[in-house]
Amino acid sequence: MRHMHEVTVVSRQECSLCDVAVEEIERICGELGVPWSVIDVDGDTELRAEYGDLVPVILIDGKQHGYWRVEEDRLRSALAEL
Q: For 7, phi and psi rounded to 5 degrees?
């Protein structure tokens, strides 16, 4: 059985880069059938300490994949891996 990856966008309110990243993740994950979610970095002190200056941060299976911008080709390649 193939492992299904999960993508998380670590975001915050009133962040234009975050809004763009969420739109791109929604489109890409929708096309690939990959589950995804958004977490507000300001709602969790540990997340804020770790990622606060990097948002938006893209996590795949809980591990940091990238930040500030979605690199579509790189993301698609990572999601294609088992």
A: -105, 135
